[in-house]
Design a protein that fits this description.
Layout: H1 4-16, E1 18-26, E2 29-34, E3 38-43, E4 57-63, E5 66-72, H2 73-76, E6 89-95, E7 98-104, E8 106-114, H3 129-132, E9 134-140, E10 143-148, H4 156-162
Parallel strand pairs: 2-10, 5-7
Antiparallel strand pairs: 1-2, 1-8, 3-6, 4-5, 6-7, 9-10
Length: about 160
Amino acid sequence: MSNLPTIRSEINKISTDIIQLVSFELDHEEYGVDVLSVREIIRLPEITKMPNTPSYIDGIINLRGTVVPIISLRRRFGLMDTDSSRSSRILVMEAGGSLTGFVVDAVAEVIRISSGEIQPPPAITHGNAAQDCITGVVNHGEHLLIVLDLNLLFSDQDLSAINF
């Protein structure tokens, strides 16, 4: 007796699962994270600087009574730093076991895609924490959207620096 029909139906089910991604921009490139991992999207408030933290940590904010560390994704990804603009936002997410804010250039939209559309990242993207958080690539319109899992962005040492 063969299990082939069962396997095919599971493969078809997996490739037709719809997922939603919050797409955002960094340095004119489009990235996406699972919408279920995003708690909220806020404008840039006043950020309190923290001494003796890694360069990619902008500081902390008070979000309705909760202290939230703020990470500059530009600096964490090794991109050139720029001044924030009116479109800059903070993605507040559960990352590394606590709420963390990620500064992005702009939030674009929530997109729905089939999980089968996500292609594995090219082999050249492995080697450091910023690249290891890339989980896939999606052909979105006329450009590529890089799918991220920001939980993979942090080593244990990074987590201890973030969780003040």
